[in-house]
Amino acid sequence: MEWLGEVSASGVLERRFDVEREGRTVPGLLWTPSAGGRGSGLVLLGHGASGHKRADYVVRLGRAFARRGMAAAAIDGPVHGDRRADRGADSRLTFLEFCQAWSSDPSMIDEMVADWRAALDALLDLGDVRGPVGWWGVSMGTIIGLPLLAAEARFHAAVLGLMGLTGPTRERFEVDAPRIACPLLFLVQWDDQIFPRQSSFELFDAFGLEDKRLYAHPGRHGELPEEAFALSEAFLSLRLAPETHR
After folding, report:
1. For the chain, what is the domain count?
2. What does the mean pLDDT of the chain come to?
3. Measured between alpha carbons, how far is 160 from 187 in angstroms, rounded to an integer?
4. pLDDT tens for residues 185-229?
């Protein structure tokens, strides 16, 4: 892991890093309490298809978990952020390129799962970051996060959503969703124009879990309310708390 700068403000230390994996550079951000010490819990944050690791809601969640004494980390998606020459300045172009890759490149998901696992290994090797580990990712954060959760046994809780049992990864989701074993919160926008609610309900049904819950709110795809973020934060913080894992 290579550190590429840090900023400390309002009790939160933000550090930029790169992880190298088989010739691929994985660019990421890590948020931890700036007071030092080893907090408990690490939340990995997956951004959406038109964003990057510095998207406003990702940074807000990362800082919120750090203020709770936890760590949080995000990496750029397959054609996003610091993986691009323009650093993600044109969100529409980024979105289109992701959709093209999603529909035409069968290796994209597996490469991103491997990137996340390499980042997780590097983070847990640090002295100031430790598990248990959680996941938060909706829309593209579910497209990539769901297979990651199915492949990786180190997750203890997850938030997914804004996605349905549809699209290029439908068949993979049908296989991977029943394999997820950790408690799950699934977020749905009732008027989602990209992934209609029925396809979201079908995906929720595919998770073979007893400990799962669905939160639905009126609104379109990109209109998650603040209540959904607050609920996500509380859900993950509770399930990653030290007393939960004694």
Report:
1. 1
2. 93
3. 6
4. 999 999 999 999 999 999 999 999 999 999 999 999 989 999 999
Which residues in 15-30 are b (16+ Cβ under 10 Å) and which e? Answer: bbbbbeeeeeebbbbb
β partners of residue 18: 2, 27
Q: Which helix (H) or strand (E) holds 57?
A: helix 56-67
Count the Cβ atoms, other than its own, within 10 Å of residue 88: 23
In one-letter notation, the amino acid at residue 132 is: P
| Amino acid making up residue 178 | P
Residue 29, strand partner residues: 16, 74
pLDDT band at 175 (very low <50, low <70, confident <90, very high): very high
pTM above 0.70, yes or no: yes
Task: Record the tokens describing residue 151, joined without a space.
Answer: 């492949």
**One-letter identity of residue 49:** A
Give the amino acid at 240: L
Residue 22 to residues 83, 114, 213, 216: CA-CA distances in angstroms? Answer: 15, 10, 38, 40
Residues 1 and 47: their CA atoms lie apart, in Å, by: 21
pLDDT tens digit string along 51-82?
999 999 999 999 999 999 999 999 999 999 89
Domain of residue 107, CATH code:
3.40.50.1820
Say if residue 16's pLDDT is above 60. Answer: yes
> Domain range for residue 226?
2-245
Token pair of 131 as six digits: 């598990």
Question: CA-CA distances (angstroms) from residue 160 to 21, 22, 67, 90, 177?
Answer: 26, 28, 22, 25, 11
**What is the pLDDT at residue 243?**
57
Decide: 131 and 124 in contact? Cβ < 8 Å: yes
